[in-house]
Amino acid sequence: MGHPVTTNPFIIMLINMSIVFVVLIGLSAMIRLIHLCDPTNKAKEVKKPAAAPKAAAPAAAPAAAPKADNSAVIAVIAAAVAAYDSEARIVTVRPIESSVWKNNARAVALNNTVC
């Protein structure tokens, strides 16, 4: 009774992999069943807007998204620069489309965790 059924590693691998895939298939079936029985899906279907008449005038171009008010951020940046260097003159403040700061922060974090 204390003897294993098999010692062949390939049979053990096949048994373990089949168990994993059966569980994954079962989870997939449960997700699909939940998707079919979703009570919020009916609420989404009811709220569909009515179709617009075909003779209507063409829709106007969508308005540009309003720009965020960054005046508080600009004030903080200006105060920090003024505190650091009293002779500095801020010409413009604009976002830079670069990943340099993000990459630098990642490198610093890695250096801090490795050392």
From TrEMBL:
It is found in: Cell membrane. It comes from the Bacteria. One of its GO terms (biological process) is sodium ion export across plasma membrane. GO terms for molecular function: sodium ion transmembrane transporter activity. InterPro entries: Na_pump_deCOase. The chain crosses the membrane at residues 12-34. GO terms for cellular component: plasma membrane. Keywords: Cell membrane, Membrane, Transmembrane, Transmembrane helix. The keyword tRNA-binding does not apply. The keyword Membrane applies. This is Methylmalonyl-CoA decarboxylase, delta subunit. It comes from Schwartzia succinivorans DSM 10502.
